[in-house]
Write a structure and sequence with these properties.
Distance between the termini: 67 Å
Number of helices: 9
Strand content: 25-35%
Helix content: 25-40%
Number of strands: 8
Radius of gyration: 20 Å
Largest sheet: 8 strands, antiparallel
Shape: globular
Structural class: alpha+beta
Number of domains: 1
Length: 232
């Protein structure tokens, strides 16, 4: 038994050293985000009141995850028209900055629930589109706190691809191996966490002036499905 354990330990050590060497000699991919997130989405929108909020005021940061996530850029912008409120929250990491699993802990499944919200409904990898484009599959949930109900769509983009998952429990010791199986050896991809939430349903929002501008911005930073815009 001891011999088997030593062999396993040696194999893990060798794999760890091999991965370390691989990352030292392999450059991370080039970042696609060249502009500030705050410049890519309207700070003024006809008919809407627009406010930039501190990240610390979001349900995500209120659960204290931002202490270790160390974003390279972020945006938390709220749009309000009468009784309709739309929140756009984006966190960004350059290639190699954060592990997929820590970034994945940023979802409402974790942060909102830890901050006192109740999850009323949850759907995984559902279709999402705008008038201009089909989007990559969205994660969706309905969350409630103190009588306030939020319809939440969110995406975790890893190297430009939506990371779809049913988050179950906490992290496990085989997390890195699972990531390698899904993404290959290069675990240093650019990442976005994008959350679009509102007290109204998305179909109602799509009929409101100005919302298409927000959706177009989301398509441009990576949510558009390849080839979904019609060719001229």
């Amino acid at each position: 038994m001891k011999k088997i354990l030593l062999v396993v330990a040696f194999a893990i050590l060798a794999a760890s050293l091999g991965l370390r060497a691989y990352f030292v000699f392999t450059l991370p991919p080039t970042a696609t985000l060249q502009d500030q997130l705050s410049d890519l989405f309207p700070s003024e929108l006809k008919g809407w009141k627009v406010r930039d909020m501190k990240m610390s005021n979001s349900p995500e940061a209120a659960a204290r995850v931002s202490d270790f996530l160390k974003f390279d850029d972020s945006l938390f912008r709220v749009f309000q028209k009468s009784d309709t409120i739309v929140s756009l929250y984006i966190a960004y990491w350059t290639p190699g900055k954060a592990s997929y699993r820590w970034a994945g802990a940023h979802t409402p499944d974790t942060c909102w629930v830890q901050n006192g919200w109740t999850r009323l409904d949850r759907e995984y990898g559902i279709p999402f589109n705008s008038a201009s484009a089909d989007f990559q599959p969205a994660e969706f949930g309905i969350f409630e706190k103190n009588g306030n109900v939020e319809n939440v769509y969110f995406w975790h983009l890893v190297g430009g691809v939506a990371f779809g998952y049913d988050q179950k429990g906490g992290h496990n010791i085989f997390g890195a191996l699972i990531d390698i199986q899904k993404h290959g050896l290069n675990l240093r991809q650019e990442q976005f966490f994008i959350r679009l939430s509102s007290n109204k349903m998305i179909e109602e929002l799509k009929g409101m002036e100005g919302i298409q501008t927000l959706l177009d911005g989301l398509a441009e930073i990576g949510l558009e499905k390849p080839g979904s815009f019609p060719e001229n």
